[in-house]
Amino acid sequence: MILVAIGSNVAGPWGTPRQTVERALAELDRAPLRLVAASQLITTPPMGVLDQPDFINAVAIVETDLDAPQLLDHLHDLELAADRRRTLRWGPRTLDLDLIDHDGRIITEHDALMTHHGLMLLPHPGIAERAFVLGPIAEIAPEWRHPVSGETAAEMLARLGKGDAGGRNQG
């Protein structure tokens, strides 16, 4: 199973944050990708840098013949098309696409792969602390298990003490 987390909190060429997430979902259903499922959109508070607008978040399941580095490069190209600027870690962004899991592949810091846009680790190293990713995964892929811990998204979410996605449903 390939999982991609999507987020936006500032307007860009693809529109408002909500329109940007919806456009990103549409882009994830164009060759070389096929959108299998998408969570509901939720609104969540920012993480890290708190003085910024709330985020619109979702998670998608996609299918592709691209390997993990090729897919990450493709996701970064989509971010660039949406005018993503990497100026401040955890800062505002028009579009954030994170590769969460690529068919259970594990790439540790020891094995880290370089892509055209930087370092790649799998599964995404921050997933266990991100209710805004775990909740949507639990919604669309309740059978998914973290490739390292073996926990489901719901189990990790419960450990965080959040019974939901940590956000407000946007329908």
Give the helix/strand layout.
Elements: E1 2-8, H1 17-27, E2 33-38, E3 42-44, E4 55-64, H2 68-81, E5 96-102, E6 113-115, E7 118-120, H3 131-140, H4 153-160, E8 168-169
Antiparallel strand pairs: 1-4, 1-5, 2-4, 3-4, 3-8, 6-7
Task: From the structure above, extract its key features.
alpha+beta; 171 residues; 24% strand; 6-stranded antiparallel beta sheet; Alpha-Beta Plaits
Characterization of this structure:
It is built from 4 helices and 8 strands; from the N terminus they run E-H-E-E-E-H-E-E-E-H-H-E. The protein has 171 residues and is α+β, with helices and mostly antiparallel strands. It has a single domain (2-169), classed as 7,8-Dihydro-6-hydroxymethylpterin-pyrophosphokinase HPPK (Alpha-Beta Plaits). The strands form 2 sheets. Strands 1, 2, 3, 4, 5 and 8 form a 6-stranded antiparallel sheet that branches. Helix 3 (131-140) runs antiparallel to helix 4. It starts with a strand and ends with a strand. The mean pLDDT is 89.
